[in-house]
Amino acid sequence: MSACLWPGKNQMMQLYHDKEWCVPSHDDSYIFEMLTLEGAQSGLSWNIVLSKRENYKKAFHNFDIAYCSKLSDEKLESIREQYNVIKNLSKLKSVRSNALAVINIQLEFGNFSNFLWRYVDFIPVISNWESDGHIPAQTILSEQISKDLKKRNFKFVGPVTVYSFMQAIGMVDDHIRTCPHHSANR
């Protein structure tokens, strides 16, 4: 069996691919973490963001949604200066605004997971790609979710980011068909 090629020989990327990518998660804290990291990745490589993941966890108290929703502009500026995170202030401010949006969704739907997973009827979409090159950057569904999230005041949730986010939380299994981590091969 041949695995997905995108992680290359990078051990950190390979571990993420093997243990997390396309694995279904319904944990709001993890889902918020992936939303934050995918938003931070916008315009950058996933490798850069993963290399800063531990700093993000420290800066944002393990992606505690309530904590993040209360961050002041001063605290966000302090995080930008003190932690090895992506320094884009708009991306850092999106952590707060997205946490507030998540809290509103939790009040309406019980949890963030329910809101997201209803788009796929609570069952992951299993793809059967022949190669990494066949995996799309976005889909009609990621465009719809992006539009809906933006209406709810989420930031850094364009359709490409949302599709990567869907992969990150396992709403979509985009491992190539011959990858040992594809749902059909586990």
UniProtKB/TrEMBL annotation:
Protein residues bound to Zn(2+): C4, H17, H175, C179
Keyword Transcription regulation (UniProt): no
Keywords associated with the record: Metal-binding, Zinc
GO molecular function: DNA-3-methyladenine glycosylase activity; metal ion binding
Gene Ontology biological-process annotations: base-excision repair
Coiled-coil residue spans: none
Cited Gene3D superfamilies: Hypothetical protein, domain 2
The keyword Metal-binding belongs to this UniProt entry's keyword annotation: yes
Pfam families: Adenine_glyco
Record's protein name: 3-methyladenine DNA glycosylase
